[in-house]
Amino acid sequence: MIKITTWNVNSARMRESHVADFLTREQPDFLLLQEIKCEAHQFPALGFSALGYEAVVVGQKSYNGVAILHRAPVEVTCRKLPGLAQDDAQARYVELRAQGLVIGNLYLPNGNSGGAAGYGYKLDWMEKLRARALALLDKDADFILAGDYNVCPQDADFASGALNPGDALIRPETRAAFNALIHTGLTEAVRALHPRETLYTFWDYQAGAWDRNAGLRIDHALLSPRLGDRLIATNIHKDERAKPQPSDHVPVTVTLSA
DNA sequence: ATGTCAACCGACGGTTGA
Fold first, then answer.
1. Distance, CA of A254 to CA of A193 (rounded, Å)
2. In chain A, where the domains are located
3. Which CATH architecture group holds A2-256?
4. Phi, psi of A238 (to 5 degrees)
5. CA–C1' distance A173–B1 (Å)?
6. Which positions in strand B are less than 7 Å from the protein's CB atoms?
């Protein structure tokens, strides 16, 4: 079995003990982190190596930043999403090859800031991600693209009142781009196994969202066809949100058969 | 709309992004 977890930690330094506890308890083979909010040299790698995990870090000052914690040898294949502008400095993608899989960790742009240009950047990013999926399909790779997609795919994926009607997470163009990605032939792991449950992965810090269960389901794992056939279980670790000083996102784990 | 949080800059509080 292979256990892969994605978790937007909203600062790796603030959440170091949460991540260490999670590694100790859950023992994932790969932990995909988003919004580490630091540069690579600031990443708290030492505490994780003490638990047997090495880190591949694509960092940036203050914002964004992604990392993959792993226990087995890996080969890094990308440190940015192919197709983006050469001078694009946003640290939102890292991809590696390990145990016969290609694992892409992504932090998709939110799209609510920066006006039309900010939203356009999100849509462009989604198009490039689809192109990456097609390239991996052309290579007949077994791959998973997981992370904070900043997309609620369906109305059932957010609590009523948790988002404004025009929010970039639910705009029709956003959903169309997400569906276009799925329609390359990928399996959205959580819905494949839990098609009708009300499930959220994020609760805003504001306005008592956790207490009111005003959540969103925006953290996803998409699987290539053969990996879809190997999907055994998914787990949304909701208990993490009730802990002291939590991230606003909780971990989502995908278990694949060996 | 928000009852929040984290990081930065520049000197403890305002700004930005989520």
1. 11
2. 2-256
3. 4-Layer Sandwich (3.60)
4. -65, -30
5. 25
6. 1-9, 16-18
